[in-house]
Amino acid sequence: MRNGKTAAKPNDQQLRRPDTAPLIGSDPQERIEAIRRGIPAASVGQLSSRMGISKEFLIKSLRLSRATVSRKEREGALLSSDESERVLGIETLIGLVQTMVEQSGDPEGFDAPRWVSTWLARPLPALAGATPASYMDTLEGQRLVADILSMSQSGAYA
Known about the structure:
By secondary structure, the chain is mostly helical. It has 8 helices and no strands.
C-alpha cells in the first residue's frame, strides 16, 4: 500500500499472458480493455529484451518513472492506463513493421522488435533530425512516428 492505495495485482488471465506482444493482432476493443485495466509492469522488461535494448532506454523513451516501474514489478502490479498505453504504442509499431515486411516480401528471419529498436534511435529528416524515440512519450507523438513509418513503405520519406 502506498499513499493509501493498494497496488493493482494482475489476475490469473493476466499472469498467464504478461507479454504484450499477443495484443498486437487483437481486436481494438481487447487492446482498449488492456489499456484501461493496465498491463503488468513486467511487460516493460520483456519488451526491452525482445527489442534488444536496455530497459532504461525504453523507460526513458516512454517517459516512465524508473522507480514506479521497478516498484510495480516487485509488487507484481499493473501499470496505469497512461503507462500501459505508451508501452502498447511500441508494440503497435512493432506490429506495423511486421505487417509491412509481410506485405512487401519474405518475412522469414526478420526481427521486427530489433529493427524497430534500431529505427527508433536513428535521427530522421522527417522529424527535423530528432529520433523517433524522442516522440514515444505521448500518444500524439506515437501517431506521428507510426505515420512516418507507414509513409516510408511507399518511399514518401525515403
